[in-house]
Amino acid sequence: VQLQASGGGLVQAGGSLRLSCAASRTPISVNNMGWYRQAPGKQREFVARVIRGGSTDYADSVKGRFTISRDNAKNTVYLQMNSLKPEDTGVYYCYADVITSRSWGQGTQVTVSS
Asked: Can you tell me the distance from the alpha carbon of 84 to that of 13, in angstroms, rounded to the nearest whole number?
């Protein structure tokens, strides 16, 4: 499975960004898809996930501001990020679960200026 993430960039606090991550070379259906992020000097942390049926889960720090969704036909997951804060800055990594294997994307940089 290969994952290609896009959509990162530089935005002012209060602004919005939309991340996308497309999975390719998937032999069978993709189960969970989601996002983690890693700020400089910090550990990678969970941001959001969406299961194949559509149920979602979010980190407390992003609830009400971020929305995760997916297009099963395209094996693509999206992360709409609104009301961005400087503490949202980091490299965002998407992942996809196929059976018991997890694949990761290359990461996309999100920088929120104050």
From this structure: 5
Of the candidates 9, 29, 11, 24, which has an alpha carbon nearest to the alpha carbon of residue 86? 11
Average pLDDT over residues 20-42: 91
Distance CA 89, CA 110 (A): 5
Convert 29-89 into a string of H (helix), E (strand) and C (coil): CCCCEEEEEECCCCCCEEEEEECCCCCEEECCCCCCCEEEEEEHHHCEEEEEECCCCHHHC
Q: What is the pLDDT of residue 28?
A: 77
Amino acid 55: pLDDT? 95
Q: What is the mean pLDDT of the chain?
A: 95
Q: Which residue matches tokens 């407390």?
A: 60
